[in-house]
Records
---
Amino acid sequence: MTNLLFLIIVGVFVAAAAGYLGSFMVVKRMSLVGDALTHVALPGMAIALTLGISPVLGALIFLTLAIIAVWYLQEHSEVYPEALVGVIFTASLALGVLITPEPDLLEALFGNIERINITEGTIAIVISLLIVVVTRLISKKMILGIISEELAKSGGILISKLNLIYLLLVGVVVALGVKFVGTLLMGALVIVPAVSAKNIARSLKDYYLFSILFGILSAAVGVTVAATFHITPGPAVVLTGISIFIITYLVRNSAKAPC
Amino acid sequence: MLDKKVLLSVSNLKVRFDQHVILDNISFDVKDDETLAVIGPNGAGKSVLFKALLGLVPFEGEIKWQQGLKIGYVPQKLFIPKDLPLTTLEFLKLKERSEKEIYRALSQVGFRENKPHKGHLKEHVLKSKLGVLSGGEVQRVLIAFALLGHPDVLLFDEPTSGVDISAEETIYSLLHELQEKENLTIILISHELQIVFKYATNVICLNKEKVCFGPPKQVLDKESLEKLYGGDVSLYPHQH
């Protein structure tokens, strides 16, 4: 088994990147689409396992294909085909469950950090850092595009290209995270920290910082608790995130009350 | 090449979405330092004209801008969710890093430091979420946003609602002041004929097609307004 501290560090980096990316997903009102999207990793992992290649790679390929499809629908249809996206991604989850070899199913669905070796972990750290850097570079343009597509376009921002880059980054972070929390719960690692951050943030800067911080906290506390009590880390990480959400929700409401 | 004085030349512009023709056979020129008002009934294609001018929608015909021109755009409305954690300062910083420039643009639209009282601008405008500002404040912030980067031309899509009359009055006097001080050419969509008579050099009346074009006092007579709006034009304030 890999050193627990190393696993926590890997988790912290992946969760930080996921939290940062998630902050845009939430204000783009794409939370559910983003969550459904993560399920596409499952059939990809299943096929990779059957072929004996890295499940992370399988997940990445399937996610990339699904992302290009979502992006294409977003760009080319008048009404956002949310229902269709829901149907397709749930179908891929069902299909994935059917074709994933039984011994690997639980791991694919809920993750298994003990299978992460030093090389994989190091690669995950480096890629997570890259994701944070690229996201930072596109963040201003992303926000302007979210507030007003016209304002962004009139300023020469290529919204469509930007959206594709963003979604591909989400795909990469999901592929990195599936080993930690599994395909079923990965969506939570992207969305929940940002939703919690939005509860208490008064500025964009705070919002980003809290999203990253809550991601990091969820991973660090979740993995530690899981190791201490010998439970599956995936649910522990996500439940830690949910606890943070509840706390921030209460803080927000108590702050509002005197008004 | 355009004549140096002509900043924008539009000829035979046609815009359609699917099979619907939104704008047809539109031609006009805008010269340096002019204020052009675009008027017309709801659905006449005024905002679509702006989008075509900005290159946001596909069109047929020709839209020629003077080369190297910087265009500032003030959209009619922003749909900012109240819960979006974006402060006014952060919004302006999406376009301009320098706070000095931001303060300059803000003062151009009438936000002054320490007015109406000390710290008001900083505490109640810049640090506030953009989503909680009043309609008039948002409008002025949007103009400030457009003014960042020193544009040569300002495209201003007037809000139909959400800005009270007194705030609107200031916005137009501001625009007028800006035009004189900064040599700004302004193209504005207006719903107020009063404003058009007061500030516009030229007016273009749109109802899918160009109904009239020229100085407001010459072209805005009862006949062309009836043709434009159909029926009772006494509803319009210029007749008071």
---
Amino acid sequence: MGWMPRSKKARRRLLVVAVAAPILSLAAVLAFFAMGDAVSFFYSPAQAQAAHLAPGKTIQLGGLVAKGSVAKHPDGSVEFVIMDHAASEKVVYQGDLPDLFREGQGVVTKGSFEASGQFRATEVLAKHDEKYMPREVTKALKASGEWRGDEDKAAPTGATKG
Amino acid sequence: MIIEIGAFCLILSLILSVAQVGLSVIGRVRRSAVFYGAGEGAAGAAFLMVLIGFAALMYAFITSDFSVANVAANSHSAKPMLYKVAGVWGSHEGSMLLWCLALTGFGAIVALMARGLPAAMKSVVVASQGSLGVLFLAYTVFASNPFMRLLQPPVEGRSLNPLLQDPALAFHPPFLYGGYVGFSIVFSFAIAALIEGRVDAAWARWVRPWSLAAWSLLTVGITLGAFWAYYELGWGGWWFWDPVENASFMPWLIGTALLHSAVVTEKRGALPGWTVFLALGSFTFSMLGAFLVRSGVLTSVHAFAVDPERGILLLTILGLAAGTGFGLFAWRAPKLAPGGLFAPISREGALVINNLILSAATVTVLLGTLYPLIKEALTGQSLSVGTPYFNLTFAPLMALAFLVLPIGPLLSWKRGDGLGALQRLWAAAGLAMAVGLLVLWIQKPTHAAAAVGMGLGVWLIIGVVVEIAERIHLGRASLAEVRRRLGGLPRGAWGMSLAHAGLGVFTLGACFETAYKIEAAQALTINQSLAVGTYQVQLSDVVAANGPNYIAERGLVTVTKNGKPVCEAKPERRFYPANSQTTSEVALCLEGLDDVYLVLGERRVGSESQPAWLVRAYWNPLARLIFLGPLLMALGGAVSISDRRLRFAAPRRAAEAGPVAVPAE
């Protein structure tokens, strides 16, 4: 093979590139195509209303669960209202709510708006830590003036910080 | 008083670590045996001090000393003893102390027990490990001190999150941290190799047991975590591609690549720079994992003990350690002697492909994990990357790796016979195709991915069998000869076979369970039943069942198949008053390798205003293989470490033992 470089070292380098290039480009192409469909953006109710989202587009909707808004129906579906300071959005969810789902607490749901404007959730994010507030929710609530600080985080006597 | 001793010892260990670095560096510069010894002694003493501190904190948890802020925030007097002990590492501060314990502990093992390591190189390893100790101990002492007292101790603690009060999760952090921090030794060895300008077979022989140990611990840790998610969260999911899961998975992937490239460096002296690069990378990803998990910069369902303010400090530590390591690499790596040559079709070639694929897979996982951060920094918009991304990128790359995997061990070093290897694997290939087609035929073509996965699983397992048969000359030599060869197989070979078979077992379970699990949910009154697959699930009774720190409803569920009783299950729904939190205790009925998975939901009003409970039942076929596979892999790692040629203190014995009939690995 006359076109190959003379030195063994250079030939080896060329070979490594020849093997590495297809694998790396396969990874890059896969990542590029997969990212498009798998990404879902986060909206608070006010942001969602301002964005005029197309029905059927998968998004995440998060905020506080409005107190007294949870209604469980005999067919197993659940309705509740997610709110921030400026707006609120009714959510319908078919299935069992996570154990940590509670009124007055932060929640993130995943789903899409129906043509009627109703938000249908396919997933309700199950957090494992009662002290934990999803960061997007914190940010959205701070932006809308609903945030009231971390009173929940303080220890019994308020002196955990070293 | 004991707490103050603990706090004092922790500060002392920080000072000792500083001494460890200083003494070892002076020793290296002056090439003085006295200073070498002093540095090693300091390393041992630093570990002892952290151990005393750790014991003091554990004492505070066991005796429920709520004057300690960390105990008050994470423990409760009514908590069972196991979870009082596990509470030590249940919080941010405690888990960092565990991290420091492992870091200094591994450092002490190298300093005091690694005989036969060149003195100069050893002093650099000890100094590097000491520097990491200084960074993390300083962080623990100044920013995350677990020994802070409260001026007004509360009467009762706030208890550990009930979801964490679980046997699998009690042991999950020690294994996981053992794995994370085990890579710190490999990191230090890489630093030493760069400073000493020496990467050879002897160096690789030191690095391999440590990377094997760290990798095995990490494998067990991740498996425990996945098993916990499987039965504790009540959804039957065991992997969500959640950022916190990815954070532990990336060091595992890089660690796997490191294991394989270290083999090449050890046996053939090739790829020295790449092996050092991976050694630096594995601990960097471990630190990145700690940062991602503890800082809360990413939204995760498993966010525990999050503190964003301290995240920036962890990021600084990460930057310092990784920056120094890779800076040194950029400066010194070009001076490393290039390794031996090899043909593209050879054992080395196959291992290079393994490394390329694993590295590419790590990068795609990293991209998916960090993309929300990058995007938000650039556009201010929050988003999340879902499971489909990871399935679409990670699965094809792994499928490619699995295709190559059984061929590699059949190739000889330097120049292999690719066609010969493929010929020997024709049975495995045929069987794999048959299984794939069978799955496709039985279960309709909708689950093509599962069929491919099942085929690959069989390919891996039969590939291992073929490889062992080749080594012992099965069918080619006399029975006595075969038996002699079987007895003579080195443990390293058995370890590799176990790990590869474990991967196949995992693949079978994961693909089958994901594609064919069946779910049923219904509100049942007493003595009503629901069907899931071929099983009948009857709610016989619901009784009160209170534990030490919770009140619970316990369902008595009878599972039958074709009228025959299978098992009596007792799923519970618990309420923990200390946290005002409800959890579901799943009941698992083991049916061969399948699971019948039962969850008792909340009480509702059913027909004729009878009380009813929402019962969810899953049939998870081959689910046990998902957890059995990784345990086999970890066992393979342990068996490999026990190979005498890899013993920490006996690196040269294999050469003395004379030529071995069977080529090693």
